[in-house]
Amino acid sequence: MLPTLWYCLGSTPLLSSCVKAILTSVLFIMQLLKATVLKWEKNQFLSENQMMYSNLIMGKKVKKEAEPPPKDVFDPLTIESKKAATVVLMLNSPEEEILAKACEAIYRFALKGEENKATLLELGAVEPLTKLLTHEDKIVRRNATMIFGILASNNDVKKLLRELDVMNSVIAQLAPEEEVVIHEFASLCLANMSAEYTSKVQILEHGGLEPLVRLLASPDPDVKKNSVECIYNLTQDFQCRAALQELNAIPPILDLLKSEYPVIQLLALKTLGIITNDKEARTTLRDNQGVDHLIKILETKELNDLHIEALSVIANCLEDMDTLVLIQQTGGLKKLLSFAENSTIPDIQKNAAKAITKAAYDPENRKLFHEQEVEKCLVALLGSENDGTKIAASQAISAMCENTGSKEFFNNQGIPQLILLLKSDSEEVREAASLALANLTTCHPANAKAVAEADGVDPLVNILSSRRDGAVANAATVLANVAMQEPLRAGLQSHGVSSALLGPLRSANTVVQSKAALTVAATACDVEARTEITQSTVGVVHFVTLIAAVYSQRKGRGKKEEEKVKEEEEVSTLPKLMGEGSPEKEWYPPFDPDFRVYVYEVTKSIFPITNIKEQIEVLARYVAEKMGGKMSKEKLHNFSWELHISELKFQLKSNVVPIGQIKKGIFYHRALLFKALADKIGIGCSLVRGEYGRAWNEVQLMNESRKGLIGALPPPEVYIVDLMFHPGGLMKLRSREADLYRYL
Q1: In this structure, is the dihedral angle defined by the CA atoms of residues 445, 448, 452 and 455, taken in order, positive or negative?
Q2: Model confidence over 94-129: pLDDT tens digits?
Q3: Secondary structure of 220-277 in HEC code, one letter for each residue
């Protein structure tokens, strides 16, 4: 068309040359566009062919259209559940993905509060969850373990878990190959479960203690915290403490003291505070430099929230002489006393005083304490504003009174402060202070005089009307000790001592009665006191009733039932039989109040010891201390026990001396006291009588080297208890040292 138009225009001479130029340009542009389009189509074709060729070379498949699924396959279903009951139903699904998501949802739901845990229990979620603890899929097993870590804090859930007996499945999650998250929540579940006694037994029976000890070295702090918490709960049982010793658990527990988390440090200290009640554990702690760790904690002010528990552990360690010497040699004892005296926290001061009390039961420890001037620290603690600290300090003074040097020290600096405590509003404080004064004034006239001079008689008389039997008995003892001093006896009557003793004489407590009777006997040496007693009909009646009761008790021992009527008749005629020169008068052993005190002390301090060998050793040292202390073979001939026994016989007007009154005894005195006290606290031993004043005690103990062996155990071995030269030592029967002890 354009060429034709061009021809027509060219044949028309009227068109100007300008119009021809425009038409020429348009024609040129159209030809150029046509060429460009053809070139683009060619390039597009070549590009597609090249891409197909490349895909073939690289082995890449060309995308095909998706084929429809087979008719027997269920199409995926995505649902959103808003009810816990629906999710609980999913726990029975055979699909791992559904189980994992259901457990995850239940875990988040249980985290929200105790009500949700109770809801899950009502919906029956616990039983299917227990089956998932052993599921093959790791994620399902992990999520189920996480749920039980949270649910086990609910008491009803714990009860159901014990019935379902899932302990073995939970403990299996502590295996080394499991994830740290599983370790965390499995140990948390055990920590919650271990608060119940039945669960403790199950954990021990299924071997849960060994993996828990291993996890103390875990890199995860939550795992450490849960593991040590569970071990702490388990250590309440003595069988667990023995098992911990065999597993060498003390070193990893000590390592926890270096943790940066206070809760882990606190649980570690609490655990050590329990297991160090056993002697073997204390030795292990000392050998692993545990005492150094404890002293460092006390020196660090930033760790003041751990000081109380650290002091409890130190208190146990101080019972061992070797540990106490080690602390003293390293300067730790002075630091401990200075720390207790200067601390402003009452519980810390109280625990420090308790530590001194426990250690002071051993005579060697008392001697070492006295050398370190522990008395100054205790007197300072008496001035505390906290009643608990005052009580603990008074008890420590009572224990230290067994040391003669300590008794003399308290003459000037301790007795006035204790008398002030007798006026306290707290009956417990008054009882503890009166006990300290009773021990201070016994066999020490100077201290008895100091009590009277410090105006201590009036508060002591007031305590005789206390509701606490211990306080009354202690006050009566102090008054009796004062009354034994003739210059002080006369002044007692002006304070109404005789009339104040009528109440204690009527007491149902035999110890109170005996102490009151001794006080009456001591004060009755004075004419005015005798007059006051005889003028009081009530006092005479109760005093005679007391004597009749003792008479009846002695008379009734070993008698047959048919003789009881006759005994009652004899008691009714007791005042007649008390006349001098009666040919039908029978003699009965005198009352022994000191022995009763011994029984009380050993029952309180030695009976709780779980190790029988340690019980024997501690009791032997106690007996030796009461009978004159440790003896040297070379100086045995200088031990003037004969004079002491003669003085007692003269005072009692009898050849029979109460064992409690003997303060200087040799072989047979000590053996007799050991046997009597051992029977009271259930220690099996025999009393063997030898020649030339020799006697000894024999005990039977299992050979510790056979411990843990399977099969028939050999018979126990017989040992002789050393009460003279190395108190607490055990000598194998028929050994050379045992023969030297038994024979001259």
Answers
A1: positive
A2: 888 889 999 999 999 999 988 999 999 999 999 999
A3: CHHHHHHHHHHHHHHCCCHHHHHHHHHCCCHHHHHHHHHCCCHHHHHHHHHHHHHHCC
Which amino acid, residue 654? Answer: S
* Nearest to 174, CA basis, from 161, 158, 189: 189
DSSP-derived 3-state class of residue 578: coil
Long-range contacts of 701-706 (CB under 8 A, 24+ apart): 701/612, 701/613, 701/616, 701/730
Residues 6+ apart with CB under 8 A from 25: none
CA distance 190 to 167: 8
Q: In 3D, which of 529, 560, 558, 555 has the Cα closest to residue 543? A: 529
Q: Which residues pair with 701 in a beta bridge?
A: 717
Q: Residue 341, Cβ neighbours under 10 Å: how many?
A: 15
* Beta carbons within 10 angstroms of residue 91's beta carbon: 21
Cβ contact 397:416 at 8 Å: no
pLDDT tens, residue by residue, 653-687: 778 888 888 988 889 899 999 999 999 888 889 99
Ramachandran area for residue 381 (φ above 0: left; ψ -120 to 50: alpha; else beta): alpha
- Other beta carbons within 10 angstroms of residue 534's beta carbon come to 11
Distance set, CA 260 to CA 217, 225, 266, 303, 686 (Å): 14, 12, 11, 11, 54
Beta bridge partners of 699: 719
Residue with the two structure tokens 């108190």: 727
- Indicate the DSSP class of residue 563: G
pLDDT of 56 > 50? The answer is: no
Quick check: helix, strand or coil at residue 703?
A: coil
List strands edge to edge, sheet with 717-721.
686-689, 695-701, 717-721, 730-732
pTM flag (> 0.70) = no
The rounded distance, in Å, linking the Cα atoms of 184 and 174 is: 9
User: Residue 36's pLDDT is what?
Assistant: 67
Chain position carrying tokens 């749920």: 147
Express each pLDDT in 687-710 by its tens digit. Answer: 998 887 789 999 988 765 544 444
Q: Which three-class secondary structure state does DSSP give residue 557? A: coil
Distances (CA, A) of 342 to 90, 346, 349, 418, 458: 63, 11, 9, 20, 33
Please state at what angle helix 612-626 crosses helix 593-605, rounded to 10 degrees.
150
For the stretch 168-210, pLDDT in tens is 899 999 999 999 999 999 999 999 999 888 888 889 888 899 9
Cβ neighbours of 380 (radius 10 Å): 17
- The answer, yes or no, to whether residue 230 has pLDDT greater than 90, is yes
Supply the pLDDT for residue 527.
58
pLDDT at residue 263 greater than cutoff 90: yes
Amino acid letter for position 447: N
How many residues does this entry show for the chain? 744
In terms of Cβ atoms closer than 10 Å to its own Cβ (0-12, 13-18, 19+), residue 47 is exposed
The C-alpha atoms of residue 414 and residue 378 are separated, in whole angstroms, by 9
For residue 555, is pLDDT > 60? no
